[in-house]
Amino acid sequence: MPSLLQKLLLGIPLACLASGHCIADSLDSNYKIDVHSHAVPSIWREELVSAGFPVKNGTLYTDGFPVADWTLDSHISTMDSLGVNYSTISVSAPGVFFLKEAQKAKSLARSINLQLHNYTGTHPTRLGALCLLPLPYVDEAVEELKFCLDTLGFVGVGLFTNANGTYLGDKSFDPIFSALDARNASVFVHPASPDCTSVAGGWPIPMTGYPFDTVRAIESMLLTGRRAQYPDIKMIFAHGGGAIPYLASRIAGMASLPWLGGLSVPESLAQLAGYYFDTAASTSAIQLTALKSFVGTDQIVTGTDYPYVPVSQALSGLAAIEGNGNFTTGEMGKINNLNALTIFPRIINALKLN
Ligand SMILES: *[C@@H]1O[C@H](CO)[C@@H](O)[C@H](O)[C@H]1NC(C)=O
Ligand SMILES: *[C@@H]1O[C@H](CO)[C@@H](O)[C@H](O)[C@H]1NC(C)=O
Ligand SMILES: *[C@@H]1O[C@H](CO)[C@@H](O)[C@H](O)[C@H]1NC(C)=O
Ligand SMILES: *[C@@H]1O[C@H](CO)[C@@H](O)[C@H](O)[C@H]1NC(C)=O
Ligand SMILES: *[C@@H]1O[C@H](CO)[C@@H](O)[C@H](O)[C@H]1NC(C)=O
Ligand SMILES: *[C@@H]1O[C@H](CO)[C@@H](O)[C@H](O)[C@H]1NC(C)=O
């Protein structure tokens, strides 16, 4: 493998990321990195069934939504049909926080992470893994985070907007953020169900409960001071940030009231917009226009939510991004791959771009 300097001398073009890191620009703007896709390991499915999640007519449901059939082979072949080159895989809600004992949650998270490691080992240039943490058990979660990042070499960490009702800004989660910060590790935050499931009126919680839980988590990061404490941790929030581009000014306005902390409005807005947002189920012109005006094009990343969305929806969603967002080819390069490489530099190594 020639060094970066040798590549320069050989005339291989370079692309420099927002981080300042430059890579050999052998990826074209269509090379797609999907930061929001899920694996459904059978060990996880079996534990959900044993824990009493409903199985109706052979289909398992979590949060009122079917858990898709999934195999490693189908994941790769679907990536091919979607034109996705590389995916980060994570486990969706409810992670392992349905288990009521720390040791059980820890041991299931460990088995699942080893399984994810096996998948990425099988397809090292197609898949990277995001660590599943046994939150809300913080000590066990820190141990697992270290194992995934330091021993297994995962590309990043998966978190949920809340773990059994505890939101990201909660004081108890400080050791998690401290461990992430010490490693410059990046996080993908997937929505989870809020406690108050009855407000969904019996409809699937992911429909609106998930995007609003993303808003709650981002709000929690602001109001607790967690984001101010760790401003540099790169975090992706799913589904275009839920409703955050639309609600940020309202939240910043309220947070400026003296009895709510008197935060400066521009500072709050900068914090609320200081994340990455993926395009899963967020590809309409209205959503992309809002997202683009909220964060610009350096903080939007591609996401599909496969296998929880039908392939046809993922396909038309991916195809709609460029036109609906009125993005240039250069901007599509950022959204398709360069922004994801900025967040997860270990993918650069996996793809041998440095
Ligand atoms: C149950 O599953 C079978 C096989 O997938 C399907 O043909 C049938 O329509 C399903 N029945 C209901 C009530 O969903
Ligand atoms: C990326 O995926 C597309 C569509 O499957 C494929 O045509 C292209 O060759 C892939 N690029 C690389 C560098 O693997
Ligand atoms: C993944 O697990 C399978 C089945 O246990 C095994 O045959 C394979 O060698 C493992 N692959 C890697 C890369 O660890
Ligand atoms: C999860 O939430 C329930 C209900 O609030 C509570 O009883 C339980 O102790 C929580 N579990 C953990 C591990 O915090
Ligand atoms: C984290 O990033 C900073 C700034 O880019 C760098 O100085 C530091 O060495 C990095 N630390 C680790 C553990 O990678
Ligand atoms: C699309 O973006 C171009 C600049 O790249 C701009 O000139 C044009 O007005 C935009 N079109 C719409 C419909 O916003």
Please explain how this structure is put together.
It contains 14 helices and 15 strands. With 354 residues, it is an alpha/beta fold. The strands form 4 sheets. Strands 3-7-8-9-12-13-14-15 form an 8-stranded parallel sheet. A hairpin with a 5-residue loop joins strand 1 and strand 2. The model has no long low-confidence stretch (mean pLDDT 95). Bound molecules: 2-acetamido-2-deoxy-beta-D-glucopyranose (6 copies).
The structural class is: alpha/beta
Count up the helices.
14
* Major β-sheet strand ordering: 3-7-8-9-12-13-14-15
Sheet of most strands: 8 strands, parallel
Number of strands: 15
The CATH topology comes to: TIM Barrel
Summarize the structure.
With 354 residues, the chain is an alpha/beta fold.
Keywords for this entry:
single chain; 354 residues; three-stranded antiparallel β-sheet; 14 helices; 44% helix; 15% strand; globular
